[in-house]
Amino acid sequence: MKKRTTPWLAVLCLIASYCLQAQSNYYQPLPLGAIKPKGWLREMLLTQKNGSTGKLDELYPLVMGQRNGWLGGDGDQWERGPYWIDGLLPLAYILDDKELIAKVKPWIEWSIKSQQPNGYFGPSKDYDYEAGIQRDNSHDWWPKMVMLKILQQYYSATQDKRVLTLMSNYFRYQLKELPQKPLDHWTFWAKFRVADNLMAVYWLYDITHEPFLLDLGELLHKQSFDFTHQFLQTDFLTHFGSIHTVNLAQGLKEPIIYYQKHQEAKYLEAVKKGLIDIRHYNGFANGGYGGDEALHGNNPTQGTELCTIVEMMFSLEKALEITGDISFADQLEKLAFNALPTQITDDFMERQYFQQANQVMATRHQRNFGDNHGGTDLCFGLLTGYPCCTSNMHQGWPKFTQNLWYTTADKGIAALVYSSNEMKTLVGKNTMLTVLEETNYPFDESIKFTLSLNKSDSFPFHLRIPAWCKKAIVKVNGKDFQEIEGNQIVNLNRIWKNGDIVELILPMHIFKNKWFENSLSIERGPITYALKIGEESKRMINTKDSKIYGESYIESRPTTDWNYGIFEMPDSKLESFFITTKSNHISSYPWNTQNTPITIRTKAKKIPTWTLYNESAGHLPYSPIYGLEASNLEEDIELIPYGCTTLRISQFPVVGTK
């Protein structure tokens, strides 16, 4: 086998074509593989490679093996196979990993070769029921939408023009068939998740300029669930059970995807209002929201489905790219640095179906969730809860990596989400640029960019200043260049030369937010801090229903007290009452209690009446309660980053003032 090399000439041509294709977008994505993660982010991707992302065909052969319908078999015909590849493919090409690429290619090749003369592609035959797999509804529009996302990423990495042919033929098929067989003809999922389909249609239009694609876009939008109307004109986000929360996470971006060709303010306003209402009525301090599985309010013992986290991250990434609105980047980092790492085991082999913002036991038990799956929803396992998340969790970190950088319409670059990496692209007057980004963010405040250019050139360099940052400092070649207030983009436009260094310092301070029952969260930068609870974890052998929920799973129980309340105080006192300590060394894998890179100590009191209910924290005491029965003894407690926890309290009742 010939050694595979990176075709940089082809990549550079693709970068240039991207800039021409997506002029309606505020920013343009780089080709898949142009951003190489470093530091802890690279460790996360390597853990995925060596964990379930790289081995799911072995760990879950019933669905991901050769019988899968997306490989031409008589097994699972629906979403789970494409879900897996939607994370495996970007992982493979970001790491430039031959073994993973070899696993991806059969799924791509079969999908392309499956196209029929009428344009249809994918599995086309339904089979009788078989336990554990989805063998019917092969013609459903929804699973093809996931494969369209995959093929779009595959084209970004390879420029395989067969993708363009397949999509053009399939979209002609859709334009012909949808009037008689609309999005909800087979199942209701496509009606809510059509944004992924519309995204591919507009992407292809920007390449081929085939007019029929705009007609198809109108038809897809017309048949979809009207998120724009629902967000702007109704109160449906205030009601329990009004929508499946993965549908909400995926569908949230539909107005903004449609906005690309219909630039009316209402589409942006709808999404912004939707996010505000989600937070107000259903939001948690970890950036997620209550949905187990349907929308279920903001009580911090309600569950958040893992699929919701990764799909909301992708929606925010697309919204950021299209609009340039940095509030989407702030929300993206909140999810990535809090909710995502806590819900998957360190070896990336097992996960929770639901997580709780206040989670004091992760055991097999029926809880107050809208959907219970044998009581396994909080247990860490390969198949606990429901297997959609087993298949879909893999896209989170790879797509986060892919969205660290964008290019700008005026031939510049934009760093809008931060983590260590190396990026290559063309800028200015066709100048080859490599940027090495070095940082321990989000645990540290400084980010260093070292620029390597083959010749000096003038181009803009955009940097995001998060809303939580009061005043950032930008340095160029060691000299203070600018002080910038938070919640904006700083545009460094100058003549750049080889070896230039840009430093961005984002001073982090302690701040608080209020949530359900006036509970308080303690936050610093993009990280929410949670009570460190001692825990005892034990692997349980499943002798009851192993074919459904897996042969084993992990339960965790507390070994220390958790029922603490904290003190309310003015913002001016927070830094003196919440004492931050940073580790001298940040581990390559920082997301567990053993490697916690930063801690916060404060005073708290126990609340004896706040006890377990249904193996969850009992109802959160309202804050403040006059005459609350709390301990007279003030104790020191330790808070650690939410993403480092398994058990935690992240939304605290108030036991007094300081």
Polypeptide structure, described:
With 658 residues, the protein is α+β, with helices and mostly antiparallel strands. The chain is 34% helix and 21% strand. It is built from 21 helices and 26 strands. Strands 15, 16, 17, 20, 21, 22, 25 and 26 form an eight-stranded mixed sheet that branches. The protein has a seven-stranded antiparallel sheet with strand order 2-7-8-9-14-11-12. A five-stranded mixed sheet has the order 1-5-6-10-13, with helices on one face. A hairpin with a 2-residue loop joins strand 23 (612-613) and strand 24. The radius of gyration is 24 Å and the shape is globular.
Radius of gyration: 24 Å
Discrete helix count: 21
User: How much helix, percentage-wise, in residues?
Assistant: 25-40%
Described by the principal axes of the CA atoms, the overall outline is globular
Poorly predicted ranges (pLDDT <50, ≥5 residues)?
Answer: 1-23
Quaternary status? single chain
Task: Lay out the secondary structure.
Elements: H1 8-21, E1 27-29, E2 35-37, H2 39-50, H3 52-59, H4 61-64, H5 80-95, H6 98-113, H7 141-158, H8 162-177, H9 189-193, H10 195-208, H11 212-223, H12 227-233, H13 245-251, H14 254-259, H15 265-282, E3 304-305, H16 306-323, H17 327-342, E4 354-355, H18 388-392, H19 396-402, E5 405-408, E6 413-415, E7 421-427, E8 431-439, E9 446-453, E10 457-465, E11 471-476, E12 479-485, E13 488-496, E14 501-505, E15 510-514, E16 520-524, E17 527-531, E18 535-541, H20 546-549, E19 552-558, E20 564-568, H21 574-577, E21 579-582, E22 598-606, E23 612-613, E24 616-617, E25 635-641, E26 654-657
Parallel strand pairs: 6-10, 20-26
Antiparallel strand pairs: 1-5, 2-7, 3-4, 5-6, 7-8, 8-9, 9-14, 10-13, 11-12, 11-14, 15-16, 16-17, 17-25, 18-19, 20-22, 21-22, 22-25, 23-24
